[in-house]
Amino acid sequence: MVVDKIKEAIDINLQVTTQEPRMKKAYGRMAIGLTTFLIVVLLGIFVWQRQKNEPPTIRVEQPEHNFGDLQQQVTVKHTYRFTNTGRQDLKITGFKKSCACSVTRLPSEPIATGQWGEITIEFKTENQLGQISQRAIIETNDPQQPIVPLTFSARIVRDLVVTPPLLFFGEVPHGQESSETIRLIDGGTRTLSVQNAHSTNSYMKCFVEQDATKDDSKNYRVIVSLARDTPLGRHKGEIRISTNSTKHPEVAVPVVALVVGNVKVSPHELILRATAKESYTRRIIIESSRDDFRVEGIATASSNIQGHIKDVLLEGKRRYELELEILPLAGQSKYAGTITLKTNDLLQPVVEIPYSTEPLKRTDNPVMH
After folding, report:
1. Residue 41, SS3?
2. pLDDT (tens digit, 9 = 90+) per residue, 228-256?
3. Contact (Cβ atoms closer than 8 angstroms) between residue 334 and residue 274
4. Residue 368 lies in a domain
5. Looking at residue 74, which CATH number applies to its domain?
């Protein structure tokens, strides 16, 4: 269309230049001026129409952000700023995340040409540790960038690292002393100091010393020992450690120990299904290092649990298999009680196996006698 108009203006100019000599000069100047004017106007219209049809274009100023070092259990925010460099209104049509973050600010109105908008992301560092890199995605009506990633990274640190978080002695033979170690490592945010440590279980003793196995003297270890005269059974307690950490002034590490004699039972406790609609069976293995060991009786605390014991000879050793039939509960919401075994073992004449439909909450008293 524009080309046709320009050709038409040129034809008019040629016609004028062929007129009588006396009119030629006047009309020539007018034709040239009109032609120039038409060319400028038509080119302007052409450019305007072309620009009008250009789509929106999003340009994010800094699509990547590094938070640096962050403590655990904190919430941080970052705002990403973007501009519409296109010719049509820019719209943010959606937000998707593949990270533990949420968006707290998202433009609801279109962004005009040359204008800017902001998107704010909130990130919680709980349950995070170490170097992390995560990404959120915004969806736009920019045909060239319908999906725009926004990324952030950080190093999540703790001012205090305790390992292990739960101390388990395992099976300790009766009459034998045993010890385990809890390590406290400075997270690098301050100089760690451990004031003292104490145990909530009288059979578990502890003391604090600097960790000589580490190059950094800021680290500590707590030596936990189980007394030789600890009775048979499962023992629980906590080692409570006082530090100069602002977030963890006192650290409690659960401790579990199982003191065993000649008689060994597997599993040591039963977690039963309260919602079972039909009866089902569970099996318990009873073994002893004694050749003349016998299980002389069995008793259960519930009529819904019936036990049948069987003498088995395996690889020249005698063991017992206790097969339990668990009947559906009638008018009860859960099981709780013990299965009692009577044996001919002098040290363990009675062995108790606790059962429940939920994690057991027992005291430090032994469950085997």
Report:
1. helix
2. 999 988 899 999 999 888 778 899 999 99
3. yes
4. no
5. 2.60.40.10
